[in-house]
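Question (not urgent): is this output format expected?
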Amino acid sequence: MPTNELRRVRDPLAGIRIPTSSGTAERAIELLDPSRTAVITGAGISTDSGIPDYRSPGSPERNPMTGSAFRASEENRQLYWARGYVGWERYQLFEPNSIHSDLAALDPLAIITQNVDGLHGAAGSHPIELHGSLHRVVCLSCGTVYSREWTQATLAELNPGFLASTLVSPTDIETNPDGDVELDQVAGFRVPNCPLCGGLLKPDVVYFGEAVRPDVAEAAERAVDDAAALLVLGSSLAVHSALRLVRQGAKAGIPIVIVTDGPTRADDLATVRLVDRVAPFTAQWRAMNA
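Got this back:
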């Protein structure tokens, strides 16, 4: 079995306390003309849809698959794909919540999401997906992209009876933030390779320890450059790919509003910092721009 050491990640928020709010929602909204605001969203906006996150207050400790672990061994890939195969049956049932709907209606200058759940798109937005999407699968050799539906169908053909053998209900079992589930027995699970070149297939997402694709990073940077204000929703900014965008905005001198109920790595950069759930704020922002 793959070792836990391969899957352990460091928490950059360890020891950081939850701050107190500074400013009000009304003041924040005064700063946020939707047509000139870039919005960064994190896992905290999808918890209202039922998808757990890594760092909300009270979240259990989780050990996600890292990019190096996925590439390291066939056993690790077997573990991920078996867990992901079962988890997808529930994950695909998640729907956008009021936050996604509010943002789609507000239609800000840009939505830059760290989330891989595809819920912004399902709500009608066209986000910059900083960390990719679980709805796509990519070949690590030739770069061909496959749909998750094709991948699930292929996994089902290669592993007839596997779902039944797990003795769990795919629609009831709790999924991890990355769409997989906890399974102990994955021996014999078969994983497909790329039909075109035989390369390894991986979800088209940025695993812990991997870098954001250069073209995606550049698109996010341009969006912040073009913005007159920056809004962070439901993100701890624990990973550098999002944190650097906030630092970019701070360096440019634009107002920064952060709304989330836990600590972030950029609390000292916020013009307005609201320690609260996100849904009431986006509802108020939408109402004041109706």
